[in-house]
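Q: What structure does this chain adopt?
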Amino acid sequence: MVPHHIAIVMDGNGRWANKRFMPRVAGHRQGLEALRRCIRLCMDRGVAVLTVFAFSSENWARPADEVSGLMDLMAGAMGREVPTLKQNGVQLHFVGDRRGLSDKVCQGFDQAEAQTADNRRLVLNVCFNYGGRWDIAQAADRAAAKGLPITPEGLAAELSLAHVPDPDLLIRTGGELRVSNFLLWQLAYSELHFSDVLWPDFDAPHLDEAITAFAGRERRFGKTSAQVGGVSADPGASVATST
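A:
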């Protein structure tokens, strides 16, 4: 069974570069190539939604030259990548707090989203200047501004990924065993897969390993094995009340 929605923490770019005595930004450039590859692989395997953690709200604390390099890489990538993504049927969404980002980057986000809005083959959510706690807080603010009660359903409707079902599978590369403030609400019932491979080296066998592991798990969403009868719940089921 292929996950409907895969989320990925693309970790290990800097360490990949350090091992080769290269500047860290070179690892991020190679990480972009790994993302291109992963998008193609997901489309080939029938994944409907791919969400990637490109830049966290905590990454501003990194060395200034690395942050500047990441911003330049993002700005340049949009001009190069969007025409191909559009042609291949990818619908782009840039998710995160746009305060603090340059006008050039924000305008690029808006243009890329508008140019790919009609595509349906794959939804690609790029989380940039994103944090899970920020996402929940901004959802609560939006609900309150509308005069809505703060309920799980109400908050879910205001989250930045409300346009897609919650992830079925989270993959984190780089050998770290944490979610690092990524999709804290949306990962409530996601299956987790941790890989030691550094993100620039992530390829088809690694993705297939994660999908195979996912397919072998029983997703109960609070029910018992007898209740689900060994059949996985529908992809995208989101709100549940018990484990």
